[in-house]
């Protein structure tokens, strides 16, 4: 059990340190997130090209090269990828909001109680998406600050868990 305690303390310390560093250096954290995303897209492109090799579907080859080009741009120009982070998140919230609204209307047609809550949450998600796209810089900083807070809270909880578990 002692090694588990130490593991939790070290993990908690690392998470707290990462959260504090992200709060202290938000621009660098945003750039790093963009670069990591770029490397991930390059890996996806390589995977698509290997899919072309095995299945001989030309769309895999095209998708692979497009992914690799987009990933290289994101790695070489991390400012561009950092700029697009709020748009990607906004697009996700927009599509999730549309999905919730459609589900709300469908449940309303089926006369299910509480259907309107899905409708309201869908509208709220769409409004949030629009706000993220209107002000991408402040949206990006907000996302990074929330992520920093989550890292710090997770680290504090891991340290507390290390103290709480029996020896």
Give me a quick take on this structure:
The protein is 92% helix and 0% strand.
Please provide a written account of the structure.
The chain is mainly alpha-helical. The chain has 6 helices and no strands. It has helices at 2-24, 26-55, 58-76, 78-109, 115-134, 136-164. Helix 2 (26-55) runs antiparallel to helix 3 and helix 2 packs across helix 4.
Give the secondary structure arrangement, pairings included:
Blueprint: H1 2-24, H2 26-55, H3 58-76, H4 78-109, H5 115-134, H6 136-164
Helix pairs in contact: 1-2, 1-6, 2-3, 2-4, 2-6, 3-4, 4-5, 4-6, 5-6
Number of E-type strands: 0
Give the CA-CA distance, first to last residue. Answer: 6 Å
Count of the domains: 1
Structural class: mainly alpha
Q: Output mean pLDDT.
A: 85
Strand content: under 5%
Uncertain spans: none
Number of helices: 6
Q: Tell me, what's the shape?
A: extended
Radius of gyration: 21 Å
The description of the largest β-sheet is: none
Q: How helical, in percent, are the residues?
A: over 70%
N to C succession of SSEs:
HHHHHH
Features:
0% strand; mainly alpha; single chain; 6 helices; extended; 167 residues
């Amino acid at each position: 059990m002692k090694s588990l305690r130490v593991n939790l303390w070290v993990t908690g310390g690392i998470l707290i340190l990462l959260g504090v560093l992200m709060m202290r250096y938000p621009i660098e954290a945003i750039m790093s997130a963009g670069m990591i995303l770029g490397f991930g897209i390059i890996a996806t492109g390589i995977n698509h090209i290997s899919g072309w090799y095995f299945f001989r579907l030309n769309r895999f080859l095209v998708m692979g090269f497009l992914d690799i080009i987009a990933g290289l741009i994101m790695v070489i120009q991390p400012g561009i990828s950092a700029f697009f982070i709020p748009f990607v998140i906004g697009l996700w919230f927009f599509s999730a909001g549309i999905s919730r609204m459609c589900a709300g209307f469908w449940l309303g047609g089926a006369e299910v109680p509480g259907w309107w809550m899905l409708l309201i949450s869908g509208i709220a998600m769409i409004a949030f998406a629009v706000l993220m796209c209107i002000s991408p810089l402040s949206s990006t900083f907000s996302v990074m600050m929330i992520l920093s807070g989550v890292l710090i809270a997770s680290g504090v909880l891991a340290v507390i868990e290390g103290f709480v578990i029996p020896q």
